[in-house]
Amino acid sequence: MNALNPEVLQYFLGGIVILLVLFIIVFQILKKLGKDPGNILPANFANRIGVPMLVFLASLLIKIAVLARLFRFEYTYELLGSLSSLGFIFSIAWFFIVALKIVKSRILLNYDVTSKDNLSARKIYTQFMILERIIIFIIVIMALGIALMSFESIRSIGVSVLTSAGIAGIIIGFSAQKAIGTLLAGIQIAITQPIRMDDVVIVEGEWGRIEEINLTYVVVKIWDQRRLIVPSTYFIENTFQNWTRQSADILGTVFIYTDYEVSFEAIRGELTRLLESSPLWDKKVNVLQVTNATEKAVEIRALMSAKDSGTAWDLRVFIREKLLVFLKENYPESLPKTRISVSNPSDENS
Fold first, then answer.
1. For residues 137 and 219, which has the higher predicted lDDT (pLDDT)?
2. pLDDT surpassing 70 at residue 77
3. Is 257 exposed, middle or buried (0-12, 13-18, 19+ CB in 10 A)?
């Protein structure tokens, strides 16, 4: 026995054709709007929204068939009614997630993290990336909750579990304490921002840049292309260095060890000449100081500034190399040496 009357089947197939035609028309309209540069919709909006829109229209078609009582068997209504409800719930949640991503991408177009002074841009990027993940997490949880509550049997089970979940709730709470703490740490990072996207940090003795900030972990890109995966709680509970907390510019230091016979003014003049000849120097800080003196050598510190940590590193190695070459070629006697005093035995006997 067929579940559909022949006449009803014709109307049902006709509805499918109409909805498919409607889908194609809407898809093409959205695709055309996406190609317009002045439109808020992105170029690939039609492709991103195509699947949830098709699910939504299919659910609408099934819901109409159920409400019109087109089927002969009662179990068919229950099955298709539940499927249509799930389709509505998850397609709408999908719509919200796509809309959220579009709004975020449109807002972030006004901020360029590749510029030299990108502090405010990195701040906005960090906030939006973490908040986007939080909102998506909430949307998914709400969609799953609504979907489960749409089933009468599951709803009754859920009510009974909630009324007798005292001890189980405590056990689950203790089990999930660390996971919840990690989630809260991710939210706290978004609000207080001890780190931001593209910040230069020293974590566990490793120099790197913040590449990703997620709800539960942070990805640090190490200078040698390795990735350091750090829990979000690390940046709340531990001490670490953030070289770009207030601005990207940074001071670089070079230590040179020489003999006491060195000419400090000559080294100071050479440092100034080297800095002025290098495009890596931002022309802000140029200092040469004697920072220590031991029985073996004199410690000289050259202090210089650069626009960011990467440039400061290149400037430091450049200055260190050139100063050593300068001392070797012009003041070889000023390189560190060990003095030994040898007494003549004949002088002691006389």
1. 219
2. no
3. middle
Strand 217-222 with 286-293, pairing = unpaired
Q: For 302-314, what is the mean pLDDT?
A: 86
What was the pLDDT predicted at 1? 42
Say if CB 150 and CB 82 are below 8 A apart. Answer: yes
Check if the beta carbon of residue 251 is closer than 8 Å to that of residue 261.
Answer: no
Give the phi and the psi of residue 82 in degrees, each rounded to 5. Answer: -65, -40
How many CB atoms neighbour CB 301 within 10 A?
14
pLDDT surpassing 90 at residue 204: no
> Does the structure show a pLDDT above 50 at 164?
no
Q: What single string gives the DSSP state of each residue in 154-196?
A: HHHHHHHHHHT-HHHHHHHHHHTHHHHHHHHHHHHHHHH-SS-
* CB 266, CB 273: distance < 8 Å: no
Inter-residue contact 259 to 297 (CB < 8 Å): yes
- Compute the distance between CA of residue 30 and CA of residue 35 in angstroms, rounded to an integer: 9
Residues 6 or more apart whose Cβ sits within 8 Å of residue 68: none
Amino acid at 61: L
Contact 12, 65 (CB under 8 A): yes
**SS3 at position 59:** helix
Least confident of 82-86, 132-136, 206-210, 284-288: 82-86
Angle of CA points 40, 44, 50, to nearest 5°: 105
Predicted local confidence at residue 145, as pLDDT:
76
Say if residues 239 and 189 touch (Cβ distance below 8 Å).
no
Q: Which two tokens stand for residue 300?
A: 């000289």
Is residue 334 within 8 A of residue 259, CB to CB? The reply is: yes
**Residue pair 275/319 in contact by the 8 Å Cβ criterion:** yes
For residue 277, the number of C-alpha atoms closer than 13 Å in the C-beta half-sphere is 9
Provide mean pLDDT across the span 103-126: 75
